[in-house]
Amino acid sequence: MPDRAPQPxxxxxxxxxxxxxxxxxxxxxxxxxxxxxxxxxxAGHFPREVFGLLSESGLxxxxxxxxxxxxxxxxxxxxxxxxxxxxxxxxxxxxxxVHTLACxxxxxxxxxxxxxxxxxxxxxxxxxxxxxxxxxxxxxxxASLRTKAVRDGDDWVITGTKAWxxxxxxxxxxxxxxxxxxxxxxxxxAFLVPGDAEGLHAALPEKKMGMKGSPTAQVHFDGVRVxxxxxxxxxxxxxxxxxxxxxxxRLGIAACAIGVAQAALDEAVAYATGRQQFGxxxxxxxGLRFMLADMATQIEAGxxxxxxxxxxxxxxxxxxxxxxxAKLLCTDAAMKVTxxxxxxxxxxxxxxxxxxxxxxxxxxxxxxxxxxxxxxxMVIARHVAGPDSR
Length: 390
Known about the structure:
Radius of gyration: 21 Å
Shape: globular
Strand order of the largest sheet: 1-4-5-8
Helix content: 40-55%
Number of helices: 10
Distance between the termini: 60 Å
């Protein structure tokens, strides 16, 4: 079968600088990430060296202020960079998104002194972050979290367990939501916890269906002492900070989903135009042509939706509803497109000799993380029809 190279995505970018940036990301993705993705995922290898390269290249702080080492890029540019990384390897794309999520609280709610002290290393100093909201007994119902932070002089002592933490056990810093007051959302406060803090340790990584190169683990806080200078925002403001971060984080998941879907479509097109049956390429058969057309349409629709939400965010307008819509549509599209890509390749699609089976396994988790798609539907319905009357 002839090797049909995928065509670069036709992107709408606001500046020449943004076009150069996406070209740099694509070059790194194709040269340093994609060639080793299958082997390293199979081995469960986390590519820390790649994240070091991304940090050195200024790609781990793209949407943040250049005063602290960020890239000053609008979200519509940052998300398209994430899409390129996700297409090359979801472990890297999702990891970059989670790192950005972990920086959100300090970048948007921290004091000037906190930002000067910590952000440069977080954004461009080679550090890697993790975001700690979910717990074993509180996933979708995050406001019921039980991890506690108790004031002791000038410190806070954190005790509890966080679950499903991307980069758990390898992160250099953790943005942690802990209960400092009564029950419910108003009793939660945010903290910036060093990865080497005494009393912080991670369980063995979860054995997952996909994304085997990205460690996901419970993180235990056994009397972890954190100075009040590492409290982010006001006491009791943590849940609002968490929700603000998740609105932006959901756009990151949407972009990664479209990246995975695009990679699956590229593989399906290459196979269908090269595979001969009955004396001609299988891409000539209407049944497959229509599948490829539907896959391409879903990808373009998802990309347009996440970019529309990003432009609202960049303009300082409310975007929570659109972020939920983008996360829902893009991740559902990724699941459908990757499943169809396996079908296009037939028996070969079900083997590890081709990457589409990995794309399908990876796409599934995107319908779950940072708010399941059922939760996204609840968020959207609340905006459309108002709060539930119960």
